[in-house]
Amino acid sequence: MEVSRSLIIILITAVITENFVLSQFLGVCPFLGVSKKVSSSLGMGIMITFVMVAATALTYPIYFLVLIPLNIEFMNTIAFILIIALFVQFTEMLLRKYIPALSKSLGIYLPLITTNCAILGVTIINVSGDFNFFEAVFNAFCAGLGFLLVLLLFSGVRGRIERCNIPEALRGMPITLIAASIVSLSFIGFGGIVEGIFGG
Length: 200
Fold this sequence. Notes:
Strand content: under 5%
Helix content: over 70%
Structural class: mainly alpha
Oligomer: single chain
């Protein structure tokens, strides 16, 4: 019962109340760059979720089995960046060889996953929090789902904006940033949901 309760809290927190994009402002570049179409948002969201889970599964044991025993845990950022970069490059090679259509549709955004601060952020949060390995991987999966949810929601918002008569001074990035801030504000209403359900 306690395990399922903690997993539900992780799910609600990572997807809604502490969404990496809307509350922690991590991964804003792909959020603004890829969210023009639902198809590209879906592809990017799935890839980011996959990389978040795999990066956590790789970095968590390295942190606790290698960096801490050697007393070099302060090197975690550099080590995690290298691990994420190697994993993304390996994934890119596999996609190019076995699923070229998906590789072509993701284009330049696949290598840019390496520099997505949300992935580095989730790996660092997972090792610095009170998560065991399973909870850390689940938190990474939920953070990816939250990222996917926000990308899909915002792609719908941007599609609606394109059909509106926007004043010339606000066209392009200004109205996009205003819309992003309104979407972010809408998630603040979920702030006390965990305390409300579980009583703190």
